[in-house]
Write a structure and sequence with these properties.
By secondary structure, the chain is an alpha+beta fold. Helices cover 29% and strands 26% of the residues. The protein has two domains: 249 residues, Aminohydrolase, N-terminal nucleophile (Ntn) domain (Glutamine Phosphoribosylpyrophosphate, subunit 1, domain 1), CATH 3.60.20.10; 188 residues, Rossmann fold (3-Layer(aba) Sandwich). It is built from 19 helices and 25 strands. The strands form seven sheets. Strands 3-2-4-1-10-9-11 form a seven-stranded antiparallel β-sheet.
Length: 478
Amino acid sequence: MTTCEMACLDRPHEECGVFGIFAPGEAVARITFFGLFALQHRGQESAGIAVTDGVNTHLHKEMGLVTQVFNESNLAPLQGHIAIGHTRYSTADSSRPVSAGPFLLESMVGPIALAHNGNLVNTGEMRRKLFQRGVGLASSCDSEVIIQMLAGAQGDTMLDRIKDMMSSALGAYSLTILTRDALYGVRDPWGFRPLCMGRLNGGWVIASESCALETVGAREITEIAPGEIVMVDRTGARVIQGRSPAKSSLCIFEYIYFARPDSVIDGQLIHEVRQELGRQLAREHPVDADLVMGVPDSATAAAIGYAQEAGIPFGEGLIKNRYIGRTFIQPDDRLRKAGVALKFNPLALGLKGKRLVVVDDSIVRGNTSAPTVELLRRAGAREVHLRISSPPIKHPCFMGVDMATYGELIAHRLSIEEIRAHIGADTLGYLSMEGMIAALNRPLDRYCTACFSGDYPLEQKAGGFLSRESQACGVMEA
């Protein structure tokens, strides 16, 4: 277990971030590097870039952070005018080099490279179909399944093959795809994961979040709608409906935790939404206190909103070691027991004798909340009132978010009062579903809230999944 894993056990984790660019005359690999750097928060286990000049296709990928994987010497050979990039956090598959993205293979239609954010719920069925066709697989990663599906799909053009793949794939997939002559962006019909596009000089860029597009200087940024395919080649960009939109199911955790605060999703700035989540939380769970603080960095905006609504001063109580990141150096037993202290240091002089409201975005397993509360008490806090800017997480995610199992989810096993006693807080308050939706100022049916409600857009049945669409046909998805 790495130091980062120790310090982040009580957080949901995304699977990855994707990026793509079609820009003749530009240093596309270098631009992709900076796009991935802006998406580093979505995955820290591996990074990769594939590039083509229309004749040759090159790929470089390794385990590690974007800045660990790439340098001037290995970026230099990545020459061309089309590139895609990927930064990964593993969920269904293990963290190993064979599963790093992008995936690249040769096919009847030439080279195909693919970067994938999400998770298919019918991967088992797809794997069996590929095996029956005599296709071998090197990993259990569903990204490899998707690219093999594309390589063997029906259709004379890549656009036809993408549509064919979309007709059978169930689950979350936001994709960037590279061929010898075009870049594609693909978003699943449910819109589980965000995907957007923008103009860059004479070219186009596609990314998981708008912050990555703004980082590289893109303009005219728009969101790719559920079920859409964006195709970019030398004639320009065009949008094709690959499959009719299904029930809108954007992952609500994009607003709570995953997305960067400066990104815009569904027309809303993430930072402003998180502040409103904090304001709603203050209305629902007020408390007399001296100071409001957030658990850095993801809960800072919600803490600011709570402080504004409650009329209590906001301040920093925990300083985060922002360089702990990913390290391969294992701590000894003494440091391992220190746990959260490796990631946070309290500002003891500012906390002594204070009644604190501590705002966090979520509690998953509950195994870092208790050490955090203890850390604040050791620093002299008189009272610690924990406030969570989302409802209790009671159900796992099967769409590519590492949300733990039923047995690991503390809110599935314990009542709110039992959780409070377990973590040692004086009081504990979660934001309600109604308050969360009010903060978003959008209808509930636009989002996937399965981790809170257990209402899955693709329903779980007997260890597999049955889509509502498939229920009508009586088809069980393995």
